[in-house]
Amino acid sequence: MRKIVLFMHTSLDGFVGGPNGEMNWIIPDPKMFEYASQQTDLADTALYGRVTYEMMNGYWPTAADQPNASKHDIEHSKWYKGVTKVVLSTTMKNSNLEKTKIISENISIEINKLKQESGRNILIFGSPRVAHSLMEENLIDEYWLFINPILLGNGIPLFKNIKSMTKLKLMSTKAFDSGVVGSNYLVVK
Protein backbone atom coordinates (compact mmCIF):
# COMPACT_ATOMS: atom_id res chain seq x y z
CA MET A 1 0.00 0.00 0.00
CA ARG A 2 1.20 3.52 -0.80
CA LYS A 3 1.93 5.94 2.03
CA ILE A 4 0.76 9.52 2.36
CA VAL A 5 3.69 11.61 3.57
CA LEU A 6 3.23 15.19 4.80
CA PHE A 7 6.07 17.69 4.27
CA MET A 8 5.47 20.86 6.23
CA HIS A 9 7.43 23.83 7.55
CA THR A 10 6.30 24.89 10.99
CA SER A 11 7.21 27.53 13.52
CA LEU A 12 8.43 26.36 16.91
CA ASP A 13 5.01 27.24 18.33
CA GLY A 14 3.20 25.06 15.79
CA PHE A 15 2.02 27.37 13.00
CA VAL A 16 2.46 26.62 9.28
CA GLY A 17 1.45 30.09 8.12
CA GLY A 18 1.06 33.50 9.65
CA PRO A 19 -2.37 35.05 10.34
CA ASN A 20 -2.80 35.81 6.61
CA GLY A 21 -1.11 32.61 5.44
CA GLU A 22 2.26 34.32 4.98
CA MET A 23 5.32 32.07 4.84
CA ASN A 24 8.10 34.65 4.61
CA TRP A 25 9.47 33.36 7.93
CA ILE A 26 10.52 29.99 6.41
CA ILE A 27 14.29 29.64 6.19
CA PRO A 28 15.38 28.06 2.89
CA ASP A 29 18.42 25.83 3.28
CA PRO A 30 20.16 23.96 0.43
CA LYS A 31 21.14 21.11 2.79
CA MET A 32 17.51 20.79 3.82
CA PHE A 33 16.52 20.44 0.16
CA GLU A 34 19.04 17.60 -0.24
CA TYR A 35 17.64 15.94 2.90
CA ALA A 36 14.05 16.25 1.65
CA SER A 37 14.93 14.97 -1.82
CA GLN A 38 15.49 11.54 -0.27
CA GLN A 39 11.71 11.38 0.07
CA THR A 40 10.75 13.03 -3.19
CA ASP A 41 12.75 10.31 -4.92
CA LEU A 42 10.41 7.76 -3.26
CA ALA A 43 7.22 9.46 -4.48
CA ASP A 44 5.39 9.57 -7.79
CA THR A 45 2.39 11.64 -6.70
CA ALA A 46 2.02 15.11 -5.16
CA LEU A 47 -1.15 16.01 -3.27
CA TYR A 48 -2.20 19.66 -2.96
CA GLY A 49 -5.06 21.95 -2.18
CA ARG A 50 -6.07 24.36 -4.94
CA VAL A 51 -4.15 27.36 -3.59
CA THR A 52 -0.87 25.47 -3.13
CA TYR A 53 -1.31 23.71 -6.48
CA GLU A 54 -1.75 27.02 -8.30
CA MET A 55 1.33 28.43 -6.56
CA MET A 56 3.43 25.32 -7.32
CA ASN A 57 2.18 25.00 -10.89
CA GLY A 58 2.98 28.66 -11.51
CA TYR A 59 6.62 28.12 -10.56
CA TRP A 60 7.94 24.56 -10.83
CA PRO A 61 7.25 23.62 -14.47
CA THR A 62 9.71 26.30 -15.68
CA ALA A 63 11.94 26.75 -12.61
CA ALA A 64 14.79 24.76 -14.20
CA ASP A 65 14.73 27.01 -17.28
CA GLN A 66 15.59 30.18 -15.37
CA PRO A 67 19.16 31.51 -15.84
CA ASN A 68 19.78 31.54 -12.07
CA ALA A 69 18.19 28.13 -11.36
CA SER A 70 19.73 26.39 -8.37
CA LYS A 71 20.51 22.69 -8.23
CA HIS A 72 17.34 22.25 -6.15
CA ASP A 73 15.26 24.20 -8.71
CA ILE A 74 16.51 21.98 -11.53
CA GLU A 75 15.98 18.71 -9.66
CA HIS A 76 12.59 19.60 -8.17
CA SER A 77 11.33 21.01 -11.47
CA LYS A 78 12.17 17.73 -13.17
CA TRP A 79 10.46 15.78 -10.37
CA TYR A 80 7.37 18.03 -10.43
CA LYS A 81 6.91 17.67 -14.18
CA GLY A 82 7.18 13.87 -13.92
CA VAL A 83 4.78 13.16 -11.08
CA THR A 84 1.01 12.95 -11.00
CA LYS A 85 -0.59 15.90 -9.23
CA VAL A 86 -3.77 15.34 -7.20
CA VAL A 87 -5.68 18.46 -6.18
CA LEU A 88 -8.38 18.50 -3.52
CA SER A 89 -10.72 21.28 -4.56
CA THR A 90 -14.41 22.01 -4.83
CA THR A 91 -13.80 24.98 -7.14
CA MET A 92 -11.35 23.65 -9.76
CA LYS A 93 -13.22 22.10 -12.63
CA ASN A 94 -10.66 21.82 -15.44
CA SER A 95 -9.98 18.12 -15.74
CA ASN A 96 -7.80 18.58 -18.84
CA LEU A 97 -4.71 19.57 -16.85
CA GLU A 98 -1.69 17.45 -17.74
CA LYS A 99 -0.89 14.72 -15.21
CA THR A 100 -3.41 16.26 -12.78
CA LYS A 101 -6.43 14.70 -11.09
CA ILE A 102 -9.00 16.78 -9.22
CA ILE A 103 -10.89 15.32 -6.26
CA SER A 104 -13.85 17.42 -5.18
CA GLU A 105 -16.02 15.02 -3.17
CA ASN A 106 -15.80 11.78 -1.18
CA ILE A 107 -12.27 12.76 -0.19
CA SER A 108 -11.68 9.93 2.27
CA ILE A 109 -12.88 7.29 -0.20
CA GLU A 110 -10.88 8.76 -3.10
CA ILE A 111 -7.69 9.10 -1.03
CA ASN A 112 -8.02 5.50 0.17
CA LYS A 113 -8.39 4.42 -3.48
CA LEU A 114 -5.17 6.31 -4.31
CA LYS A 115 -3.39 4.58 -1.44
CA GLN A 116 -4.49 1.18 -2.81
CA GLU A 117 -3.21 1.86 -6.34
CA SER A 118 0.20 0.59 -7.35
CA GLY A 119 2.92 3.18 -7.20
CA ARG A 120 5.20 4.98 -4.83
CA ASN A 121 4.48 7.40 -2.00
CA ILE A 122 2.08 10.34 -2.18
CA LEU A 123 3.58 13.59 -0.86
CA ILE A 124 1.70 16.57 0.55
CA PHE A 125 3.73 19.77 0.30
CA GLY A 126 2.24 22.50 2.44
CA SER A 127 -1.51 22.64 1.85
CA PRO A 128 -2.58 23.00 5.49
CA ARG A 129 -6.31 22.63 4.76
CA VAL A 130 -5.63 19.37 2.91
CA ALA A 131 -3.44 18.19 5.77
CA HIS A 132 -6.18 19.04 8.29
CA SER A 133 -8.78 17.13 6.23
CA LEU A 134 -6.53 14.08 6.04
CA MET A 135 -5.63 14.30 9.74
CA GLU A 136 -9.33 14.26 10.56
CA GLU A 137 -9.67 10.95 8.67
CA ASN A 138 -6.33 9.59 9.98
CA LEU A 139 -5.03 9.20 6.42
CA ILE A 140 -1.48 10.54 6.89
CA ASP A 141 1.11 7.81 7.35
CA GLU A 142 4.26 9.83 7.88
CA TYR A 143 5.21 13.39 8.89
CA TRP A 144 8.32 15.28 7.77
CA LEU A 145 8.31 18.47 9.80
CA PHE A 146 10.80 21.29 9.33
CA ILE A 147 10.74 23.29 12.54
CA ASN A 148 11.92 26.86 11.97
CA PRO A 149 13.47 28.79 14.89
CA ILE A 150 10.71 31.38 15.19
CA LEU A 151 7.63 31.98 17.32
CA LEU A 152 4.72 33.37 15.31
CA GLY A 153 2.24 33.72 18.16
CA ASN A 154 -0.74 33.01 15.90
CA GLY A 155 -1.63 31.91 12.41
CA ILE A 156 -2.59 28.67 10.67
CA PRO A 157 -2.01 25.76 13.07
CA LEU A 158 -0.07 22.67 12.03
CA PHE A 159 -2.44 20.25 13.75
CA LYS A 160 -6.21 20.59 13.55
CA ASN A 161 -9.24 18.28 13.37
CA ILE A 162 -7.54 15.36 15.10
CA LYS A 163 -10.34 13.19 16.47
CA SER A 164 -8.29 10.74 18.51
CA MET A 165 -4.81 10.19 19.84
CA THR A 166 -2.30 9.38 17.12
CA LYS A 167 0.93 7.71 18.21
CA LEU A 168 4.07 8.62 16.30
CA LYS A 169 7.50 7.02 16.15
CA LEU A 170 10.50 9.28 15.61
CA MET A 171 12.44 7.88 12.64
CA SER A 172 15.10 10.57 12.21
CA THR A 173 16.01 14.11 13.12
CA LYS A 174 18.53 16.49 11.59
CA ALA A 175 19.61 19.97 12.64
CA PHE A 176 20.65 22.29 9.82
CA ASP A 177 23.09 25.20 10.02
CA SER A 178 20.16 27.58 9.41
CA GLY A 179 18.68 26.53 12.77
CA VAL A 180 15.87 24.53 11.14
CA VAL A 181 15.36 21.06 12.60
CA GLY A 182 13.94 18.34 10.37
CA SER A 183 12.08 15.56 12.13
CA ASN A 184 10.54 12.49 10.51
CA TYR A 185 7.72 10.66 12.31
CA LEU A 186 5.95 7.48 11.29
CA VAL A 187 2.33 7.04 12.36
CA VAL A 188 2.04 3.92 14.53
CA LYS A 189 -1.09 2.00 13.53
- Which architecture does the CATH hierarchy give at level 2? 3-Layer(aba) Sandwich
In CATH, the topology is named: Dihydrofolate Reductase, subunit A
Q: Note the overall shape.
A: globular
Q: Largest sheet, order of strands side by side?
A: 5-4-3-6-1-7-10-9
Order of helices and strands: EEHEHHEEHEHEEEE
**How far apart are the termini?**
14 Å
Number of helices: 5
Poorly predicted regions are none
Beta strands, count: 10
Architecture overview:
This protein is α/β, with parallel strands linked by helices and 189 residues long. The chain has one domain (4-187): Dihydrofolate Reductase, subunit A, CATH 3.40.430. It has five helices and ten strands; from the N terminus they run ββαβααββαβαββββ. The strands form two sheets. Strands 5-4-3-6-1-7-10-9 form an eight-stranded mixed beta sheet, with helices on both faces. A two-stranded antiparallel sheet has the order 2-8. A hairpin with a 5-residue loop joins β9 and β10. The chain is globular.
List the helices and strands and how they pair.
Elements lengths: L3 E8 L3 E3 L12 H11 L2 E7 H14 L7 H12 L1 E5 L11 E4 L3 H10 L4 E5 L2 H9 L5 E7 L7 E2 L10 E8 L5 E7 L2
Parallel strand pairs: 1-6, 1-7, 3-4, 3-6, 4-5
Antiparallel strand pairs: 2-8, 7-10, 9-10
Helix pairs in contact: 2-3
Features:
single chain; 189 residues; alpha/beta; Dihydrofolate Reductase, subunit A; eight-stranded mixed β-sheet; two-stranded antiparallel ribbon; 5 helices; 30% helix; globular
